[in-house]
Design brief:
Elements: H1 6-13, E1 19-23, H2 33-45, E2 52-56, H3 65-74, E3 80-86, H4 89-101, E4 108-113, H5 116-120, H6 122-126, E5 132-137, H7 139-146, H8 158-170, E6 174-177, H9 186-199, E7 203-204, H10 212-219, H11 223-241, E8 247-249, E9 252-254, H12 256-267
Parallel strand pairs: 1-2, 2-3, 3-4, 4-5, 5-6, 6-7
Antiparallel strand pairs: 8-9
Helix pairs in contact: 2-3, 9-10, 11-12
Length: about 270
Amino acid sequence: VPCSEPRKIRKAQQSAADCVMYDLEDGVATSCKEQARRLLAEAAAGSRRGAEVGVRINAIGSGLEDKDLCAALQAERLDVVLVPKVNSATDVQHVCRAIDRAGRSAVRVIASIESARALVNIHEIAQADARVDALLFAAEDYCADAGVTRTATRRELYHARAVVANAAHAFRLQAIDMVAMDFRDADVLCEEAEEGAAMGFTGKQVIHPAQLSVVQRCFAPTPAAVLRARRIVDGFRRSCNTGRGAFELDGKAVDMPVVKCALRVLRR
């Protein structure tokens, strides 16, 4: 949510979002940057209890990032800083040093992958600092940087999305999928969210409160999936108790990889 627009801030605060990300970057006009910083502390303080509070600063090297960090780190409530347009580990480390100097030990970092260079450097970005909690894919900036033509099929984004999701899991981070820009089309949003969940993303960015219920439903396991996962885990325990490993359930073989997937569903 742009941190320069009080009306939108109030709507975000009343939403069921898991994390409200107050934007100081692309959603805020250059002439309104200082106003957004002034509104930040009050906006963060007014966020719904139970929702994480985040701030998206301006990119490292923009000349705006240090003022943004100063404003963010002075806010009483702050859980995470989103670093946009990360190209290398040094971008993330710049932010982490500022967090350390401010003594905000609990604040985490999300690294936003928005360029071809970031995709090449993604492993070093993921390991840049222990504060890194998630990798996020920003499709529109990536397309602009890499010369990719956006289509309704999203086929042209499959490789980049898969690399981000895989790297996140490799280093035990959250993987946050791209924004569905047409926020009035619930069918496209649902299709995109289900696709992202199937690719291994653990969450998705939203830019309008109307998108929340669709995304949260698509990323949560269905009741049928939970029931099947419980049957797999229970069956595995019974099988182990009788001295066997793999077993049969509903005519299909169940072995350890299947059990691991079931456990992941139950944890979620």
